[in-house]
């Protein structure tokens, strides 16, 4: 086993089987969701986000940070490939907010071929991301540890939907064309630098929990969700409380010389968000 795989599995606290099986894929998918938080802090600092293998390993594994789709699924793809899975990245268009025009390809997801059967895996769509792979089948509801999903197919296009408040909500659209690495670089740069990107205007963080719940953070609003109800919801009173929640509840590393950040740096970010009573003062 490579040094990277040993470090990645240690990051997940993983001591299970690593054979190329559906059970391994399902278990690793959930463990990744429950360990490595989705977050966009580097976009806000701002710091450039690099997608090469060494950069992802250094940030998400060694520094115990999180990241967004290009980082999360890039790391997961590498781990699966080194374990022996037949896996490739795809690119999708996020349609969660029902945009008036079809948006660019700014979401990275994974296609896994396992024994001739194709699966969609995705550890990088924040609080509504898949927490288990689902079969590439059209119009078949599929249960995951954190909700029910389905795929719709029309021509070359596939759409992932999540069951939300008793209706199906479209999340993103994709096709099976294999992208080049430069396509991820372009989508990543757009997501981090486009002035209207939501990653530039909100602190976003989420981590799923093994019991079917999840933790979410939008600016100063923290929520602990259960399977079907809110367990805890509160507005954090100040940046110090936010800094503590980021570490204690989301398990985010902040001490790395290269990838960490101080409470002072976090305060500079949060001063721009008017959702908090102290923001902008």
TrEMBL record:
Query: Which keywords, in A-to-Z order, does the entry hold?
Result: Acyltransferase, Transferase
Q: Which residues cross the membrane?
A: none
What domain of life is recorded for the organism? Bacteria
Name a GO molecular-function annotation.
N-hydroxyarylamine O-acetyltransferase activity
The EC number(s) attached to this protein equal: 2.3.1.118
Keyword Isomerase appears in the UniProt entry: no
Q: What class of enzyme is it?
A: transferase
Q: Does the keyword Thylakoid apply?
A: no
Which SUPFAM superfamilies does the record match to this protein? Cysteine proteinases
Question: What Pfam families would the database entry show?
Answer: Acetyltransf_2 (PF00797)
Q: Which family does it belong to?
A: Belongs to the arylamine N-acetyltransferase family.
Its name, as the record gives it, is N-hydroxyarylamine O-acetyltransferase
Taxonomic source organism: Trabulsiella guamensis ATCC 49490
Organism placement in taxonomy: Bacteria, Pseudomonadati, Pseudomonadota, Gammaproteobacteria, Enterobacterales
Q: Which gene encodes it?
A: nhoA
